[in-house]
Design brief:
The structure is a homodimer.
Chain A (H helix, E strand, L loop, with lengths): L4 H14 L5 H10 L6 H10 L10 H22 L3 E2 L2 E2 L1 H5 L1 H20 L4 H27 L7 H26 L4 H28 L2 H4 L5 H5 L4 H9 L2 H10 L6 H32 L9 H12 L3
Antiparallel strand pairs in A: 1-2
Helix pairs in contact in A: 1-4, 2-6, 3-4, 3-8, 4-6, 4-7, 4-8, 7-8, 8-9, 9-14, 9-15, 12-14, 13-14, 14-15
Amino acid sequence: MIFKREILNLIDEELKKYLNKDNALYKASKHLTFAGGKRIRPYLSILVYKLKKDDVKDMLPAAISVELIHNYTLIHDDIMDNDEIRRGKPTVHVVYGEPMAILAGDLLYAKAFEAVGDIEDSKKAHEVLKVLAKACVEVCEGQAMDMEFEKYWPTVEEYMEMIRKKTGALIEASAEIGSIMADFNREEREAIKEYAKRIGLTFQIQDDILDLIGDKEKLGKPVGSDIREGKKTLIVIHAINNLDEDKKRRLLEILGNVKNEDEIKEAIEILKPSINYARELLKKLTDEAINYLKIFDKDKRKELEELAKFIMNRVY
Amino acid sequence: MIFKREILNLIDEELKKYLNKDNALYKASKHLTFAGGKRIRPYLSILVYKLKKDDVKDMLPAAISVELIHNYTLIHDDIMDNDEIRRGKPTVHVVYGEPMAILAGDLLYAKAFEAVGDIEDSKKAHEVLKVLAKACVEVCEGQAMDMEFEKYWPTVEEYMEMIRKKTGALIEASAEIGSIMADFNREEREAIKEYAKRIGLTFQIQDDILDLIGDKEKLGKPVGSDIREGKKTLIVIHAINNLDEDKKRRLLEILGNVKNEDEIKEAIEILKPSINYARELLKKLTDEAINYLKIFDKDKRKELEELAKFIMNRVY
């Protein structure tokens, strides 16, 4: 799938309106926001909107609100995780220091809700506000769950709940916001939520897969960093539940305690069956997601079908 | 002024509704929120509302939204400033670690806007959203200005602009939100904003005074900490502009470079005329603030007059 340049430009222009100052705070806020993100969330909002309406002008503040939230979470997450590289660039706290990076995230947070306030119709602004605030709560709850996982081995169900909140909630909100702005009826809104819920999950699972078998250059970060950090991804949790004792013991030895590149390769080899499991799950979720689109116009839903496939197949 | 227990209880009960979970994230979010804050902002919202309406039940989510924002800013500020004590208790990041403290602030942020979303009337929710988001932007901008001041000596005007944003914006928003919820007309809303703008300034200036001549026990932090940290408060900026060369040099030697308690006392002695200047400014701003209340019912405005005086005269 090729994202349309004209839509990406609309998104970037709208984002710039909200960050149109040039002091240290705004520079720090723009550092990551304009560092080449994929804009999947506002793009999704717009594609959903276009299922029923054409002129996107009035819904752009709503669409970019989710991108502003997304970028605030990345800036704060990078501080929490001590990550120094994101999208191939040094992270905000590395360049501007931690205090300014916390503040830059806080500013983007405020700007997201300022954008929601700029929706003209009060009823729609109110609905979007509810959806976005709920997603923000869930993103925090998901992130906290992820942090708690460092202390114990979660079940696959707990892991799925975590990513539905940490990653999925904002993707769901993006789609729902598009549906609010385009006056979807209840049935349509529910269908689009179910679609988005599934692509939210696939998005994170594909992230976990790419960390193991992706391309360093395209990802903008080294392959296997989750293994180095000992992260409990779906793939790792599945492996721990399904490997024989020898392989399991060896995997646990390597996780979070990598001595050389060969061990990364060894761990990935051990994880192969679980990577396949994750890929099959991706396929199933993507099929389900696409199925929920059936109630919409055949031509108009095409791009959303492609988006679902793109998220499953993406390489960065 | 004695804050009414029944109103404080309503505020606390409403806050609890939004933080009614007990995992690590919610515990961290409640740590400061229920550590004995004065609740001046939601109290102000309620007093403003009561100028025109009686039943506060429906406006409580709006009132506590500002308290949630206030607490998020304190948690993040304490991380940025490396402060270890607040309200006489260890700060959130000291107890829960920095990652969880960042996240706890982020959760309170989301909860504030969730509360705004819970306002039933969409038109009011929309207006409150706009006011609160704008205040959140200004709070960040003010905090960034404050951080920039570490690098140069601001003018009194720049300092006043900084505190109007960092501290004043949210106090103004509190009052404005009360006025929206109680259907004030334009003239009434403007008057209450002018009132609140001034008490917002007096609030910060009194904070700066208390840091120099307050009571350690009542403040919950040591006296003179601003001198120890070399903070450029209104009082210090005024002193630098008005002292003779000898005293100015001595003050600059001590600021941010305190060797013993006697030097704190010496600095405070040097700052005396500037403390008096700040007190006169407080008095002037408070008189102006009270004057803006004249258009409201004499009996009903009484508590807001007392609040203005309380802020000027408070000892903690």
